[in-house]
Amino acid sequence: MATRSPAIAPAPKVNAGPIARVPAPAVDPSDNAATRTAIFAGGCFWGVQGVFQHVEGVTGAVSGYSGGKKADAEYGAVGSGTTGHAEAVQVTYDPRKVSYGTLLRIFFAVVADPTTLNRQGPDRGTQYRTAIFPTTPEQKATATAYIAQLGAAKVWKAPIVTKVEPNKGFFAAEKYHQDFLTRKPDYPYIVYNDLPKVEALRVAFPQHFRKQAVTVYKIG
Q1: Where is the Peptide methionine sulphoxide reductase MsrA domain positioned along the sequence (predicted)?
Q2: What is the pLDDT of residues 49-96, one digit of tens each?
């Protein structure tokens, strides 16, 4: 079964450069739908879920697996790095309150370092790659344009390796992975790697930050 580093070293940087340098997407079409879903892979899903659960306009965030087959969507198998899956989070949101482009900006600004190939913080392997799995043609176009925009702006010194990948389906992870950051804020991995990202969200995007996390299960 896959294991996590205890992450006893100092916390890695949230991204390679000041958050303020990550611009808003130039392409971000309006959407009057009542609800949409988006799928992001940004390393360990505990932190990705934890950040998006604090975004105003997000109504749900579920940890899971994307990029591979349903039969392989199991933590032990995914941890082998041979299934094609990445640890991912499916975000349900109200596009009238928070746009897909804003979710992308938060993803690149505070969730993941888009310049490290198959690695985020202490975690290594293809299952920890950064990737975007669009659920609509419009999301694909927006994400593709935004990656090109960020690359042209040279926000990071190293090239962006995050890919827009085909959406082959999202498969929820085991129950014990859900709401991990909210349930175990004192867990060393969370303290060193993920709580700084939630704080970065609060500081950099106060207009999009919600203090009370939206969770999969009732906490407490």
Answers
A1: 37-187
A2: 999 999 999 999 999 999 999 999 999 999 999 999 999 999 999 999
- Residue 136 tokens, joined: 């609509």
- Condensed to tens digits (0 to 9), the pLDDT of residues 101-113 reads 999 999 999 999 9
Could you confirm whether 84 is annotated as catalytic?
no
**Domain segments of the chain as ranges:** 30-194
Q: Which of 7, 22, 44, 104 is catalytic?
A: 44
Return the exposure string of 124-163: e unless at least 16 CB atoms fall within 10 Å of the residue's CB, then b: ebbbbbbbbbbbeeebbebbebbbeebeeeebbeeebbbb
Chain centroid, CA 199 distance in Å: 15
CA 125/CA 117 separation, integer angstroms: 9
- CATH architecture designation of domain 30-194: 2-Layer Sandwich (3.30)
